[in-house]
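I hope you will forgive my troubling you with a question about protein structure. The record follows directly beneath this note:
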Amino acid sequence: MKGKKRSFSAGGTLGTGYVSVIMIFVMITLTVLASLSFSAAGVNYGRSGRSREFTASFYEAENRANEKLMRIDEASVEAQAQPFFSAFEQGAEDIGGLDVELSAEGYRVRWSEEISDRVKLSCEVEVFAEPKLHDNRRYSIIKWDTVSGGEADAHINVWDGTF
C-alpha cells in the first residue's frame, strides 16, 4: 500500500479554457449593458432638459394669458359702470391681440399665447353683459387649452388596409 499512488479527482471535466471563454462572454455582456445604460441616461438627460424648457415656456405663456384675462376683467368692470356695455369693445381693443365678437350674453373674446414654435395656448372667454344673471360672475372661461400651432414637416402615407 505504501507504493501505490492514489489519484483524487475533483469530479469535474471542465477545463480552464471553458472558464476563460465564459468569463470573456460575461465581461462583454456587462460592457454592452453598461454602454446601453450610459446611452439611455444621456437620452433621458436631454429629454429632461427639453421638458424643463417647455414647462418654463408654458408657464410664461400662462402668465401672459392670465394678465390679459385680468385686463379683460378690468375692462368688463369699467364697461358695466357705463350706461351701455358696448364700451367693453373699446376697452378690449386697447388691450390688443384680442378677437372680440358680440354674443347673446355679452362678448366672446379669443386670443392665443405662443409657447413654442409649434405649440400655443388658445384662450376663449365669454364676458357677460349682465353678471347678475350668471351668479354675479363677470366672465366664463370657455377654452383654455394648448394646441398645435405648427404643421408637420412631411406628410406620411399610411396604408389603411384597402387595396
Notes: The longest strand covers residues 119-128. DSSP finds two helices and four strands in the chain. The beta strands are 99-102, 106-114, 119-128, 139-148.
